Amino acid sequence: MRPSGRKTDQMRKISFERNFSKHAEGSCLVKFGETHVLCTASLEEKTPPWLRNSGKGWVTAEYGMLPRATGDRMRREAATGKQGGRTQEIQRLIGRSLRAVVDLEALGEKQITIDCDVIQADGGTRTAAITGGFIALHDCLKWMEARNMVKVDKVLKDHVAAISCGIFAGQSVIDLDYLEDSAAETDANFVMTGSGGIVEVQGTAEGKPFSREEFLTLLDLATAGTAELVAMQKAVIAGQ
């Protein structure tokens, strides 16, 4: 039995609240159970220096956790004067994941920054950020489309979503919360597109190495989970 009482293939309660921030071109408050992440999309009508005059745009991401997102207060990274390695790794993952479904030429010489701020953490913050970040990105592009700047269906090639899977207490499970994540024998994150393509897989054995068969079981769980997340994204977007 999982600590939460969920079945091995059962995700936490998931919700998306669009237009959460009144100032951002696109925003979404995403909740995976007790993990809550605010994703905002900000448009700049310029590209990074290395893309100037290339005709291509850019999508990037920044990630951070509020001081009391966890049980004990964390010091703000701004107070230390530098970002930690974990923060840099996660925000690069988010950026890569979103760019995988964006036609940068169709975007034109503009940059969209997705800020993912963890309000409350209970495992799976990076996967929630990617899944909610896609909705914020979509809504930013809709804002641009309303101003005749782009066509959403030309820029977005597919949906993208992410989910964690792992081996906990000898069982392959999906969408690990903190209690499971902190004690998992294997921990993995899967980023997949709506068409089933794999963008990225991060998998680590915390003790005993996992087998090929166990990995394929985790992949099957992730494939079903991300398909469910994409269906949720589509339903939320269709409700605009």
From TrEMBL:
Its EC number is 2.7.7.56. One of its GO terms (molecular function) is tRNA nucleotidyltransferase activity. The keyword Membrane does not apply. Residues 10-140, 160-224 form the Exoribonuclease phosphorolytic domain. The keyword RNA-binding applies. It holds the Pfam family RNase_PH_C. It is an enzyme of class 2 (transferase). GO terms for biological process: rRNA 3'-end processing; rRNA catabolic process; tRNA processing. It catalyses: tRNA(n+1) + phosphate = tRNA(n) + a ribonucleoside 5'-diphosphate. Keywords: Nucleotidyltransferase, RNA-binding, rRNA processing, Transferase, tRNA processing, tRNA-binding. Phosphorolytic 3'-5' exoribonuclease that plays an important role in tRNA 3'-end maturation. Removes nucleotide residues following the 3'-CCA terminus of tRNAs; can also add nucleotides to the ends of RNA molecules by using nucleoside diphosphates as substrates, but this may not be physiologically important. Probably plays a role in initiation of 16S rRNA degradation (leading to ribosome degradation) during starvation. Homohexameric ring arranged as a trimer of dimers. This is Ribonuclease PH.
